[in-house]
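Figure 3 (text version): structure tokens given as input.
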């Protein structure tokens, strides 16, 4: 079985071709601010269908710049889901705004458009839906709400590069102002650390480029004075959120492999779905008809009403069998920092019930069928 091998919930797949692309870049003239950045951004545009892409140092930086580019400031509020990585919510706070949450749909664990409507107030400026586990939110419904209330939409697609929604790729921004991605090694494709924003809005694109490089511009069209060819000006308070050329080279190479990653991830999810169906102890999230998800996560929902083992005991037992799993996510509003802002246990009951029942099954392209079978057997043995 798996006893002498540690199986995590996710990990990267790096080919010799990926390595070669990084090595070639290391031997080139530009380790950063070179040609690979634009090449990666163009590849992201071609893949997602968006007009513009900005490569960044990580997904959290992408969320930060997205709220800054929308001029979010004190008094502006965003709405996101409690079942997400904390950075989705933090993004509004970084820009000086505030955040509130809308509860999730039980069947998908995605933000519930009906709950969004209840949370909209006079200060609401932006909706930040998260495509949880890789499955797109119902973007048509969300875009409709945004239109009615004159709100911006930032899609947090850190889980969903390679996923489709209806006839669009996630990241096309057909239903949003911007989409953010993360390329951390546990995500569906990686650049080590890394992130990106896609958009169809030229003005936002140009703001993002400036904010990525400390707020400095050399564009003659934007300079209010020009002393000569060396001249630059700082127009905004930006950051150094650049990606390196080595990372971009890895990204270009990984992007070529993304469809095969997605296919393998879906195959593994199908095996889990078949194995855990028709067993009252277990359930998986549903996939909607509008979705073709490049699944980042495969959450297994355990019915602790019919199981004797507690969740902490279960985690310990799984570790002794080589399974090092994780929970996605602890609801953001229950974090001490967010409780200080006024949120409380019990505020989002569907999300909290989801948290109590979920754990994330191992899901990555390098998992072998044999290992998937063993994982299923171990979980069925241990969940008693
Ligand atoms: C990973 C993740 C991020 C942040 O990405 P980093 O690259 O780790 O900064 C943001 N949102 C969600 C939903 C994520 O899963």
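Below: residues designed for each position.
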């Amino acid at each position: 079985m798996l006893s002498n091998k540690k199986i995590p919930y996710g990990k990267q797949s790096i080919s010799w071709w990926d390595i070669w692309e990084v090595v070639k870049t290391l031997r080139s003239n530009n380790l950063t601010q070179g040609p690979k950045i634009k090449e990666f951004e163009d590849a992201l545009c071609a893949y997602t269908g968006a007009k513009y892409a900005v490569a960044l140092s990580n997904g959290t930086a992408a969320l930060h710049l997205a709220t800054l580019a929308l001029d979010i400031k004190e008094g502006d509020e965003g709405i996101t889901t409690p079942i997400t990585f904390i950075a989705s919510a933090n993004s509004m706070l970084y820009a000086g705004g505030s955040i509130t949450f809308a509860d999730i749909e039980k069947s998908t664990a995605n933000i519930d458009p009906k709950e969004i409507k209840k949370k909209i107030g006079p200060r609401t400026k932006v909706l930040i839906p998260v495509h949880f586990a890789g499955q797109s939110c119902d973007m048509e419904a969300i875009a409709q709400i945004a239109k009615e209330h004159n709100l911006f939409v930032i899609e947090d697609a850190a889980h969903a590069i390679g996923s489709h929604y209806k006839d669009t790729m996630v990241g096309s921004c057909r239903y949003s102002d911007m989409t953010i991605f993360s390329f951390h090694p546990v995500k569906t494709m990686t650049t080590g650390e890394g992130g990106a924003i896609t958009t169809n809005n030229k003005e936002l694109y140009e703001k993002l480029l400036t904010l990525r490089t400390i707020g400095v511009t050399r564009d003659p069209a934007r300079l209010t004075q020009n002393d000569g060819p060396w001249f630059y000006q700082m127009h905004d308070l930006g950051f150094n959120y650049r990606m390196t050329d080595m990372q971009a080279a890895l990204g270009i190479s990984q992007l070529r492999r993304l469809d095969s990653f997605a296919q393998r991830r879906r195959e593994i999810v199908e095996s889990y779905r078949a194995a855990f169906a028709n067993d009252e102890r277990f359930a998986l999230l549903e996939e909607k008809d509008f979705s073709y998800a490049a699944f980042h996560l495969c959450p297994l929902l355990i019915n602790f009403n019919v199981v004797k083992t507690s969740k902490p005991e279960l985690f310990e037992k799984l570790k002794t069998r080589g399974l090092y799993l994780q929970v996605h996510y602890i609801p953001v509003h229950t974090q001490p920092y967010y409780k200080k802002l006024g949120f409380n246990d019990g505020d989002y009951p569907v999300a909290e019930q989801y948290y109590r029942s979920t754990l994330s099954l191992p899901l990555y392209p390098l998992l072998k069928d044999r290992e998937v079978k063993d994982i299923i057997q171990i979980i069925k043995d241990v969940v008693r």
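The longest strand covers residues 52-56.
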